[in-house]
Amino acid sequence: MAAATAPSLLASSVENTNGAKLNRLLIDGGTTVLRSVFDGFHPPLNLAADLHVNYPTLNTLLKKKVLRTAQWDQLFPPGGVTPDSKTFDITLLFILLTNICGLSPPTLGWHIIPPPSDNSLEANLARVKFFRNELYGHVSTTGVDTPNFNFRWQEISAVLVALGLDQVEIDNLKAERWGKEDNHNVEHGQVDNVTSIDLATAAPSPLASSVEKINGAKLNILLIDGGTTIVREIFDRLHHPSNLLASLKSSSHTLNILLKRGVLLRRQWDLLFPPGGAAADSKTFDFHLLFILLTNICGLSPPPSGWNTTPAPSDTSLEANLVRVKYFRSTFYSHVSTTGVDTPTFTSLWQDISAVLVSLGLDQAEIDGLKAERWGEGDYRHVQHDLALLVGKQLGGFNNTQLKIQETVEKVRRTELHV
């Protein structure tokens, strides 16, 4: 009997389909509702003027490194270009909402998830930030098991609906069948025989499936599953899992300095030195933590351009390629306003990212297998039965809750006028 083939690192699975859907719900849905709330305080036509009025506050945030230079350039684009809130991601929108919109922090503050009893606008904004950081920003894999997916989906959906997202759009996204889900249905003859529907006249949903969203999902799997795994393998060669605890203890002084400087977060420290005496496991380390460890306790020397600048194309060293993975992750995953990636950009990024990951040890065949998979818009003939009936609802479903949010915005404005 032939030996079982090891599962491909990047192969389609129900778990990474779950993760891709959660990402779209959080990034596309979450960014849309936060932007809608922000635009209520600072309408797009007045945005440039409003930002100039708040220049002193924003400049202080830049000096304190709450705002990054890349975010500053979105607020005050070089060359006199007009700022556009459609380019702002969740992180930037949250900074603006909590600093220049007159909102008061919820009971526990902006940085702790509020109690279930707090259903205020501010509390729900804090929840979106928490979900984004916990389930998107600091993950070691794109995969999410189905029980956890169902729990998180319900939790996140409730918050986004409270902020104005249409429940119908959320239900449509959850019902879509991608990758492993569609493969299973086709293998068992369960492809629906339905008439194709022209959606050209339908209002575009921020959660609707598209070639661009599928491109983004594949890039995420390549970067997070492929990138994190290959970088972890490098770290494990320098600090073997069997000796990890001893290695971390011997480096505790350096790591403690990084914690005090805010380079390491408390939750990352707890992964390195788990409470209760549990053993640390590098499989729980995301790329960000692995990069901190590789550049501080592994004896690697920074490339000539440093650890925080994209290296010259001529530098193909291990260290330079680690920096490139960090750059790709930060630019095309961490700070995006949509999960969609147009095909020319996808093709270029795929080639660049693949070349770096292959040089670090990832199998080119696995990368090619992921790219060739057909998901969502590119897969089979499935169209949801009730799509035509829901088009009308999609045209107006955002409005009712938006009226409630607008009332909150107006109350804050009236309060500001009386201060």
Word description of this protein:
The chain is mostly helical. The chain has 19 helices and no strands. Helix 1 crosses helix 19 (399-417), helix 10 runs parallel beside helix 16 and helix 15 (318-334) packs antiparallel against helix 16 (343-360). Mean pLDDT is 82; it is low at 1-5, 181-203 and 377-395.
Q: In angstroms, what is the radius of gyration?
A: 23 Å
Q: Separation of termini?
A: 80 Å
Query: Which structural category fits the helices and strands?
Result: mainly alpha
Q: Helix and strand succession? A: HHHHHHHHHHHHHHHHHHH
Structure summarized in a few sentences:
This protein has helices spanning 14-41, 47-53, 55-63, 69-75, 90-97, 121-137, 146-162, 167-175, 179-187, 211-238, 244-250, 252-260, 266-272, 287-294, 318-334, 343-360, 364-372, 387-396, 399-417. With 419 residues, it is mainly alpha-helical. Helix 6 runs antiparallel to helix 7 (146-162).
